[in-house]
């Protein structure tokens, strides 16, 4: 929080520059305020010379239209709420960059909220954003039900697009990852390296991303003739700490796995941390492959084999759907799936 020091009580700073108004622009251009407004907004039929005079006056005064006045006139705030479970996650940070670029091109600013992987935090974030009258919402949910989401949004009519983890039958659209083929790529690759005792660090099963990846893992194992084993499945919070604890539990089994699939970058880091604490080497003692290829994946030791995609593309796609929904409230629900690919590195046993 910024605090203000100095200055004079009861008055403004003598050095503060006076902000130019629309009336100032109109006076210099020699037109009425309404004409100046039309010229700046590109509305109405005006002579080229008149429009040029207004634009020149605005540039001379460094005039900036009032966002509040525009909001009152158009009944929009030109802001979009962005709600994620963890702002520190490389995936959500990159998705934000992608979304922000697309939204700024369309004239919108982003208000970021962190739900801290808690349903209560997500509800509080949604209520705060709606109280600020955002024009739309981009949400990676922690697993709210459709009914609870509708109760929180209160039929506000504010368009919402979900990404990564979605709420079924809610919102104006969704953007997800190709979880089924992604998990199949990881399992098939580890089997090709000779592994059969393959474990999974699964994410939260309150979220569609966690549910779909665990389901896809089981399906991929059966396709290779391997029965999924309950003791090899560990459900985690999407955090390094949770995955570290879960990996220790796996390694303490009487017949521990020889390979691990991590359902996110954070879970892969947790597995790596547990192995280092035990003095184990990867891939010699344990092979590791993850869903998510973080920007630092090739800098780890060993470099991480992973299912990769462009997280910025997820944000851009979600933002594009939302802009369309804000401009046309009657658009049908649309789903976008972002493709994935296998990035081979040394953590699974591939050569460097």
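^ Assign residues to that structure.
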């Amino acid at each position: 929080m910024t605090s203000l020091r100095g200055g004079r009580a009861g008055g403004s700073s003598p050095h503060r520059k006076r902000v130019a108004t629309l009336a100032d622009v109109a006076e210099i251009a020699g037109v009425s305020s309404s004409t100046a407004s039309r010229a700046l907004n590109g509305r109405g039929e005006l002579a080229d010379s008149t429009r040029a005079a207004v634009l020149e006056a605005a540039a001379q005064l460094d005039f900036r239209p009032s966002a509040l006045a525009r909001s009152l006139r158009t009944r929009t705030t030109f802001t979009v709420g962005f709600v994620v479970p963890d702002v520190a996650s490389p995936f959500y940070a990159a998705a934000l960059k992608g979304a922000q670029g697309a939204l700024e091109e369309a004239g919108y600013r982003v208000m970021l909220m962190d739900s801290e992987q808690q349903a209560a935090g997500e509800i509080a974030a949604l209520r705060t954003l709606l109280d600020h009258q955002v024009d739309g919402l981009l949400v990676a949910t922690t697993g709210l039900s459709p009914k609870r989401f509708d109760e929180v949004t209160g039929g506000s009519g504010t368009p919402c697009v979900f990404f990564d983890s979605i709420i079924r039958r809610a919102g104006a659209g969704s953007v997800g990852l190709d979880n089924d083929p992604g998990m199949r790529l990881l399992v098939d690759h580890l089997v090709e390296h000779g592994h059969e005792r393959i474990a999974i660090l699964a994410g939260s099963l309150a979220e569609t991303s966690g549910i779909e990846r665990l389901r896809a893992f089981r399906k991929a194992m059966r396709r290779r003739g391997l029965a999924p084993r309950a003791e090899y499945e560990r459900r985690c919070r999407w955090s390094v700490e949770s995955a570290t604890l879960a990996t220790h539990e796996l390694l303490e089994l009487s017949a521990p796995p020889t390979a691990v699939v991590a359902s996110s970058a954070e879970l892969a880091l947790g597995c790596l941390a547990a192995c280092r604490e035990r003095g184990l080497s990867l891939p010699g003692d344990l092979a590791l492959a993850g869903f998510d290829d973080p920007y630092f994946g090739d800098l780890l030791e060993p470099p991480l084999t992973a299912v990769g995609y462009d997280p910025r593309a997820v944000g851009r796609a979600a933002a594009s759907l939302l802009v369309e929904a804000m401009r046309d409230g009657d658009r049908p629900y649309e789903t976008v799936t972002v493709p994935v690919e296998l990035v081979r590195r040394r953590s699974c046993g591939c050569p460097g």
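The longest helix spans residues 311-327.
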